[in-house]
């Protein structure tokens, strides 16, 4: 942990005790939840902490808002400060100062903070209605910037609420909008929706339930009951993969660990004319919203130009014969390596609906090999790009069915529902033995059996056969190490584990090897 994370952990533990004392349930959220299950603590690059609460628990917390001084913190939210401009509340440390760019004008406690996000219960058939009302609520609440470009779809209603705000006042207008997103009870709803504008995240209600306690920097803190299912919903099937350095996201912020945020608040009140700033920012935002349509057009043109530039850089027309020969010679890893720069930039192509001019057979081979390499999540992205112009292609649809099956097996495997995994894979034909998700599941199931029924030779052969084609698949190499360790060849197993640690980006495997064998 760095110094900022140590202070943040201190605030998290103080908050945990404060909430538990008042029987208020919460869950670690977002990167904090990933950190808990993938690292048993903070993501190494993380600079904030997030928690979720159901709306009922949030209201309970609000009733104790005046007591946060007990832990030398302040609760900043719309309910405690009517001019607060974010849907997420903040439990802010009064011992230090941390200013995030988007919060610079609210003049409230700005120390190291925990963002508190609300889970609103919503019936499945009311999701669209809720999402629209949430969008309008957030855009009226947040006067200094556009939360989500979706507001452009409701621009007339947005303007009507701006008129209402002038006539009835901010508090009354927001009260009306807030009631529109809080009208469903938990009992009548089967979903929770995150009250956060950037992404209308929808979860099955059963994902949360009774908190599951996970080690976080030496403390047991609550996560959603079905943590892995929660992370799949929020981050996708590759949530356990540690991203490359350039994709490790942190925030645009200023931190001073020596000065209380009270100093910032006092200076803000003395030197900033908040009414004038709010007036100017609101006027700026109206023009911002009106210009979203033009900006979206320009953004799409820019993305298209970027996509065509990338297409030229890839020079796939020169590589197609190389790729075809690699596939014929079963040099699958090299095929994937050549295609990886394309896959790493696939979001650009998806966002502007542009399919580079590559033969369909190359796309189909790449989707299949991504599945065989264990990257079914990347295979799905490529499928989603290609399907637009090839929806009737039988081979593409078969690959889609295969991705769906692997997602199902992977979900059960992540959730440790091994009986369901076994039921899914026992009737698969031998061709599926080349899929690492199936291999890993078979090995784990076999090693858990009693000694008499274990078929070690069979599962070892599965590993060896697969590694002929994908010698650098570190998930399967780790499973091979598990088998070697089990049969007593510990030295060879440890050497394999060290190789895995050096090269793997699978955070769950790295954590297991650290905890089980004290390897770093």
TrEMBL record:
InterPro entries: LicD/FKTN/FKRP_NTP_transf, LPS_cholinephosphotransferase, TPR-like_helical_dom_sf. Residues 20-236 form the LicD/FKTN/FKRP nucleotidyltransferase domain. It comes from Anaerofustis stercorihominis. This is LicD/FKTN/FKRP nucleotidyltransferase domain-containing protein. GO terms for biological process: glycoprotein metabolic process. It holds the Pfam family LicD.
């Amino acid at each position: 942990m760095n110094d900022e994370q140590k202070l943040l952990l201190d605030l998290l533990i103080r908050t945990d005790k404060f909430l538990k004392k008042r029987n208020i349930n919460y869950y670690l959220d977002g990167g904090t939840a990933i950190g808990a299950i993938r690292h048993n603590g903070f993501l190494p690059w993380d600079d904030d902490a997030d928690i979720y609460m159901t709306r009922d628990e949030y209201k309970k917390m609000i009733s104790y808002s005046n007591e946060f001084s007990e832990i030398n913190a302040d609760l900043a939210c719309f309910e405690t400060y009517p001019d607060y401009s974010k849907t997420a509340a903040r439990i802010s440390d009064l011992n230090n100062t941390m200013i995030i760019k988007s919060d610079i004008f609210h003049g409230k406690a700005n120390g190291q903070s925990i963002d508190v996000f609300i889970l609103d219960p919503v019936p499945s058939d009311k999701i669209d209605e809720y999402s629209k009302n949430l969008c309008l609520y957030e855009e009226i609440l947040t006067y200094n910037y556009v939360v989500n470009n979706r507001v452009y779809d409701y621009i007339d209603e947005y303007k009507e609420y701006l008129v209402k705000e002038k006539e009835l006042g901010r508090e009354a207008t927001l009260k009306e909008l807030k009631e529109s997103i809080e009208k469903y009870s938990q009992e009548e709803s089967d979903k929770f929706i995150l009250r956060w504008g950037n992404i209308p995240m929808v979860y099955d209600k059963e994902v949360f339930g009774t908190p599951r306690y996970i080690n976080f920097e030496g403390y047991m803190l609550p996560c959603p009951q079905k943590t892995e299912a929660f992370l799949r919903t929020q981050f996708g099937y590759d949530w356990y993969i540690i991203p490359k350095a350039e994709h490790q996201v942190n925030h645009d912020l200023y931190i001073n660990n020596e000065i209380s945020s009270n100093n910032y608040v006092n200076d803000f009140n003395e030197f900033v004319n908040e009414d004038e700033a709010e007036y100017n920012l609101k006027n700026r935002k109206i023009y911002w919203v009106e210009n979203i349509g033009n900006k979206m057009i320009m953004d799409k043109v820019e993305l298209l130009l970027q996509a065509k530039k990338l297409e030229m850089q890839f020079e796939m027309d020169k590589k197609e014969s190389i790729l075809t020969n690699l596939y014929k010679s079963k040099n699958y890893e090299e095929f994937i390596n050549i295609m990886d720069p394309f896959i790493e930039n696939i979001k650009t192509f998806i966002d502007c609906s542009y399919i580079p001019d590559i033969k369909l057979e190359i796309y189909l081979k790449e989707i299949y090999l991504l599945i065989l390499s264990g990257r079914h999540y990347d295979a799905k992205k490529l499928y989603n790009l290609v399907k637009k112009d090839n929806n009737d292609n039988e081979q593409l649809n078969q690959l889609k069915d295969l991705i769906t099956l692997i997602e199902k097996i992977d979900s059960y495997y992540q959730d440790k529902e091994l009986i369901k995994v076994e039921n899914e894979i026992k009737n698969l034909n031998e061709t599926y033995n080349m899929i690492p998700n199936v291999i890993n599941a078979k090995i784990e199931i076999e090693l858990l059996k009693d000694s008499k029924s274990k078929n070690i030779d069979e599962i070892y052969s599965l590993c060896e056969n697969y590694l002929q084609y994908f010698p650098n698949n570190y998930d399967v190499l780790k499973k091979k190490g598990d088998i070697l360790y089990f049969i007593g060849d510990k030295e060879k197993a440890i050497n394999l584990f060290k190789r895995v640690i050096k090269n793997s980006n699978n955070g769950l495997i790295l954590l297991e090897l650290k905890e089980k064998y004290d390897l770093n």
